Amino acid sequence: MVDPVANLTHLRARIDEAARRAQRDPAEIELIAISKVHGAERISPVIAAGHTLFGENRVQEAQAKWPAVREGREGLHLHLVGPLQTNKVRDAVALFDAIHSLDRPKLAEALAREVERSGRAPELFIQINTGEEAQKSGVLPLEADGFIAMCRDTYNLPVKGLMAIPPLAEPPAPHFALLREIARANGLEGLSMGMTGDFEEAIAQGATHIRVGTAVFGERPAKT
Fold first, then answer.
1. Does the pTM exceed 0.90?
2. 167 near 175, Cβ under 8 Å?
């Protein structure tokens, strides 16, 4: 039987140890507990244990689940860590406190329009395709500086940082280091990188936000 609260306690200890090894303050590292496909029965005990930051991959799933989870609870923060379609921008801006998957000009334009219309501005992370994988979303590293400048200067978007998912078949450290250097060159502080299998390496490379699901909630439920 999976115990998310016990898992969370163990995970926090691992985060603290990884930060200590990297000579960093653990308070600099935000743990985004990825709750996709997990229901309120798994999420609520984690909230009761004091965790307030969660991530979802799909706008539609989050819309169906989180209003009830949030009801009567203050201080919860929800981040979108999966891809965002332009036709879901209005819903995403209304629901999420941060979006980690800004990856193309059309999406930047749509987000800018909705931020202006609604007056609500989630923090934004630009997704960088550090491995230049054809099947993966994200801005190519050589195009990152120009895209970041466009988001800031043309669309006046609140870009907080960068996000990356390294290729599965490659060591993650060089990809994390590349993301860090692109962020540094553009004066960005946020680094959304590292998941269950590699978050300790990401912390060593400067991650400010790690996206961990399995290590908290266990394996995803089987599809029915």
1. yes
2. yes
pLDDT tens track for 79-110:
999 999 999 999 999 999 999 999 999 999 99
Greatest CA separation for the chain = 51
**Roughly what angle, to the nearest 10 degrees, separates helices 40-48 and 59-70?**
50
Nearest to 193 by CA among 130, 139, 133: 130
Can you say whether the dihedral through the CA atoms of 78, 122, 179, 133 is positive or negative? positive
Burial of 53 (0-12, 13-18, 19+ CB in 10 A): middle
- Residues 177, 124, 167, 187, Cα dihedral to 10°: -20
Q: Is 50 helix (H, G, I), strand (E, B) or coil?
A: coil
Report the pLDDT averaged over residues 125-154.
97
Adjacent-strand bridge partners of 162: 126, 191
Q: What whole-number distance in Å separates Cα of residue 139 and Cα of residue 165?
A: 12
Please give the angle made by the CA atoms of 23, 28 and 33, to the nearest 5 degrees: 120
DSSP, res 153: I
If one counts every other C-beta atom within 10 angstroms of the C-beta of residue 222, the result is 6
